Amino acid sequence: MPVAAQPGATFILDNGAYTIKAGYATAGAPSLIPNCLARSRDRRVYVGDEFLTQCKDFSGVVFRRPFEKGHLTNWESEKVIWDRVLLSSEVGFNVDPEETALIATEPVLQLPVCSSNMDQIVFEEYGFSTYYRCTTSALVHENETGLLFGGSGRSDTSLIIDSGYSATAIVPIVENTVYHPAVRRLNVGGKLLRNFLKETISFRHYNMMDEAFIINEIKDQSCFVTASFAKDLETCKRLKAASNPLALDYVLPRATASGIRQGHIRDMTLPPDPDDQILTLGNERFSVPELLFNPSDIGIRQAGLPEAIMQSISAVPDPDVRGLLLGNVIFVGGNTKFSGFRERISSELQALVPDDITLRLGFPEDPVTYGWQGGTQLGQQKSRLRSRQVTRKEYMEHGPNICMRKFGKKTVDVLEYNT
Amino acid sequence: MFLLPSTENIINLPSVSPYRTRRFATLHIHTSMAPSTTSSTSATPPPSAPPPFTLFDADLTTAPKPFRNPNAKPPSRRVKNAKQIISDESKRLSSINGPGVVDKPTYINVEAPPSVIPRKWWCDITGLRAPYRMPGSGMRYHNKEVYEVIKQLPPGVDQQYLQLRSANVVL
User: Fold this and answer.
1) Closest CA to A69 of A212, A168, A162, A187
2) Interface of chain B against chain A, CB under 8 Å?
3) With contact defined as beta carbons under 8 Å apart, do A161 and A183 qualify?
4) Where are the beta strands (DSSP E) in A84-239?
5) How far is residue A261's CA from residue A253's CA, in Å, rounded to a whole number?
6) CA atoms within 13 Å, Cβ hemisphere of A321
7) Do B85 and A120 touch (CB under 8 A)?
8) Which of A47, A303, A324, A338 is placed for a possible disulfide with A157 were both Cys, Cβ 3.0 to 4.6 Å?
9) Can you tell me the ipTM of this complex?
């Protein structure tokens, strides 16, 4: 909804690899804008949210994303998308960068040159008045996380697991600062799960290697996390699809006289429509999200999520802090929305955590926007933000290195200025 | 009598900060139009303020460029993909730490720093310590018995011995 330009406001831009969550700090909820340029089959290019509102035919859509392997490499695309989010009247924020404070997020363990490029774009191309860059996990920590555990208030120490599109990041925050030696990144994210499902379906049923968007919808609607993988695999092997309680028919989208009918799960009580293409999903439904827990299933030489959490914990030297971290574990990110995820991660972690430590896991209502909500909390507390942010004047005086110093990274030694 | 060029179609760019990269080519479109052909029915909007007199306007040597495409975009800066950035970063880290010094040994790189102790020589015939060197060929030998043997070697054989430790003369 169009908003008048608000001078002196704080704008929070949770720059995810899949969606951008953007909004002013005074708003209640962010706008979700896909962080991509999409080209549909009729060669029309959609920027960001145009894709969801204007594109009618989702088959054969090719995406160009600014993020690659979890690093923001392509600023040509990202600038186009940011221009649409910040400046266009259709999205409606009408940000006046000269008067606005920006809180932007970057991926965990991003390369310094990519972070530095972002700093330069923010100040030189847009010219924001002040700027603070952090990870989404740091913003999640700013929320009133006590509410997730049946209490209230904020905690100084928490362990944030952000399972997003590119990767899953495990970030321990000790006394309100990220403890960098114990940060871990697991290369399993929504992108890997979608691609694995795409290859599995293309191998077993129909060739859908070009249909990334449709496969993503299938994944969102039909995949779940199983409590015991071996048992369910055995069930699927033993029973035929008709009598298998875990199997499911998915009706693929098709063109009808009145437009495109979107894909959906088939209602088994109704007789099947002969024009529909049906995709029967069996063990793909739970073997795809299983990759979060056992990436070695497809040969990725990394530990699964529970073990990676314990590796991160064991990298924290103080045992009391370990107990505090395990008492404040918060899961955010799109991948935590799978049904059955909570039960599975609770049981797996409980098996690995020592007896004397109380494990408390927090699952926010909306894991995708919880980081943005934390950004609003930070944006409204001007005093805390003032000590961390970089103003335009400081940037003009010291250059991009001041951003690297203030936001907690080593200075990038070689930066070229074209004066 | 000099006629100053018309200032009607100059596009002025925003001011450039000292740190600004040369990202966009400055686009000056200069068309000299005869004043009588501009009619009141043309759709040009009335200017809000008179355009500033820039250095471009004072430059009399610029000729009109009627064939310049006003919609031409400057060539897009080459974008590095993730693989290039990651390899640049690993090169930068290794250059900071020095070629012989590593942060910590990992299972990927087990590099030793260059040695500072004097080099040990080994006899080409016996394999024992060789403090002596044959003056003509440079073969190393253990004692005077080995020297007698080396003295008797046929012509090309000493080079073959040296080839075993890559010290032969290649013509």
Assistant:
1) A187
2) 17-22, 76-77, 79-82, 85-86, 88-89, 92, 96
3) no
4) 101-106, 130-135, 158-163, 168-174, 177-178, 184-186
5) 5
6) 18
7) no
8) A324
9) 0.73
Task: Give the one of B77, B82, B96 whose C-beta lies nearest to A413's C-beta.
Answer: B96
3-state secondary structure of A71: strand
Phi, psi torsion values for A81, nearest 5 degrees: -70, -40
Residue corresponding to tokens 């018995």? B145
pLDDT digits 0-9 by tens, B126-164: 999 999 999 989 999 999 999 999 999 998 999 999 999
The answer to which of A84-93, A259-268, B27-36 has the lowest mean pLDDT is: B27-36
How far is residue A261 from each of residues A7, A40, A50, A198, A217, measured CA to CA in Å? 44, 17, 19, 21, 13
**How far is Cα A36 from Cα A48, in angstroms, rounded to an integer?**
6
Alpha-carbon dihedral angle through residues A87, A92, A98, A104, given to the nearest 10 degrees? -90
For B79, the closest of A73, A124, A414 (CB atoms) is: A73
pLDDT tens track for A133-187: 999 999 999 999 999 999 889 999 999 999 999 999 999 999 999 998 899 999 9
pTM: 0.74
Q: At what angle do helices A212-222 and A190-204 cross, to 10 degrees?
A: 100
**Residue B98: its pLDDT value, please?**
65
Residue whose C-alpha is closest to residue B6's, from B25, B41, B44: B44
Q: Which residues of A touch B78 (CB under 8 A)?
A: none
Name the token pair of A289: 């999200």
Q: Which pairing describes strands A361-362 and A329-332: parallel, antiparallel, or unpaired? A: parallel
